[in-house]
Amino acid sequence: MSYVNPFLDLCRELRHLQDEAEALGLFAGDRDLLDCPTCGLFEDVTAEGLLITSRQLAHPPLDTGLRFHEGSANTFQCPACSRAISLNHQNHGEAA
Ligand SMILES: [Zn+2]
After folding, report:
1. Is the N or the C terminus of the chain less surrounded, counting Cβ atoms within 10 Å?
2. What is the mean pLDDT of residues 66-89?
3. Are 89 and 76 in contact (CB under 8 A)?
4. Which residues surround ligand 1, an ion (CB under 5 A)?
């Protein structure tokens, strides 16, 4: 009797959807939002689910158009001041 693990299929589908969401500029929520302690640039997610960066809380949110660059595992670089920011939490589903 053949048996397909439905949970495994679900995980694969979720990963696929996360990749698609990132390609569209949507935030998949698979890591914490970044916040630069040096220049104050921070990531935010709009009501539409788009990942943006801003320097002030505003409604509607103001997008600077800048994006944090992912370097090595869990380390990102601020696009405004080049500070390296480490995420303490491990990304789910990624090898260390
Ligand atoms: Zn910065």
Report:
1. N
2. 90
3. no
4. 36, 38-39, 41, 78, 80-81, 83
* CA dist., res. 33 & res. 42, Å (int): 8
Mean pLDDT rounded to a whole number for the chain: 86
Mean per-residue pLDDT for 63-90? 89
How would you classify residue 74: left for phi > 0, otherwise alpha for psi between -120 and 50, otherwise beta?
left
State the pLDDT confidence band at 39, using cuts at 50, 70 and 90.
very high
The three-class DSSP label of residue 85 is: strand
Q: Average pLDDT for residues 74-86, to the nearest whole number?
A: 95
Residues β-bridged to residue 54: 42
Distance from the alpha carbon of residue 10 to the mean position of ligand 1, in angstroms: 37
Please give the distance, rounded to the nearest whole angstrom, from the Cα atom of residue 65 to the centre of ligand 1.
14
